[in-house]
Amino acid sequence: MSIKPLNGEGYMVDVRPQSRQGRRVRKKFKTKVEAQQFERWIIATQNNKDWVEKPADQRALTELIELWFQHHGQNLKDGLKTVHKLRVMAAKMGNPKARQITKASFSDYRVLRLAEGKKAKTINLDQEKLGAVFSVLIELGHYHGEHPLKEMKKIKLPVQEMGFLTREEINTLLARLEGDNLKAAKLCLATGARWGEVFKLRREEVIGNKVTYLNTKNNKNRAVFISTELCAQIRDSIQNGRLFANLNYRYVRDCIKEIAPNLPAGQAVHVLRHTFASHFMMNGGNILALQRILGHSSILQTMVYAHFAPDYLEVPSDLILWRINNNQS
């Protein structure tokens, strides 16, 4: 027996994962559950006989998720949010054992979620999250099996229409807003910022007609210049702390929906960012400059706005072609 009680002082794991001739592993734990988890992990990962088929991983999906969170997820900006979604996913899948997770079983999960009314994009994000769990654990040496979702294709999504506000709609919107809502909307339209980036903007991040957005979606900082007039408006008399303490997201969203009722689904307040990018290109802006302003990690993300350029049908420069073909930022 590889787990032995220690007369009220915990439990001792005593195991040779590589048979009698292999290395002996002994470790003490306070609880039997911890000892059992360690024993399963040792047996599943420490058998280095590459010519012998390793035992199938008997750990439950929730156990792998907690291991991922302990070693990696807790260090992510949205780690708590992600691990919560992974736990919900595991429950929906019936908390299978690691060996039971296959392309076929995840395909069944997709069918279930589609039947529940979930969008294909949401399910694709689920696949990314679960796939990342296995990728990280394999990289860190905590999972020895094959990646179960490797090379599994995601659900193909239709190309989403990119909505934007016309000049008349922009003027109508700004006339409807006031106070912090008006200032924030102007800043989004002038810099292509996400509403969340503007929401947390602080006075000390607006210096010398330059706005610096910190800790953005891709964890990178970016700076965008604005006019002297707009800089004075948004700073006003605020000396430090948050610039916009009285934002009303729902009110701004409802105003946009009333002014532009035919916008694609999910592009209400975010349409301010699309509007900046669209008008930037329509006015002859450079696609590479737009990439830097928006903070896209790849030029391919920014190319969705390329058709707004007056010279869109002309052959793009060799630099742009090279970057697209090589997927460079």
TrEMBL record:
InterPro entries: DNA_brk_join_enz, Int_N, Integrase-like_cat_sf, Integrase_catalytic, Tyrosine_recombinase_XerCD. SUPFAM superfamilies: DNA breaking-rejoining enzymes. It comes from the Bacteria. Residues 160-318 form the Tyr recombinase domain. The keyword Membrane does not apply. The keyword tRNA-binding does not apply. It holds the Pfam family Int_N. Keywords: DNA integration, DNA recombination. GO terms for biological process: DNA integration; DNA recombination. Transmembrane segments: none annotated. This is Phage integrase. The gene is xerD_2.
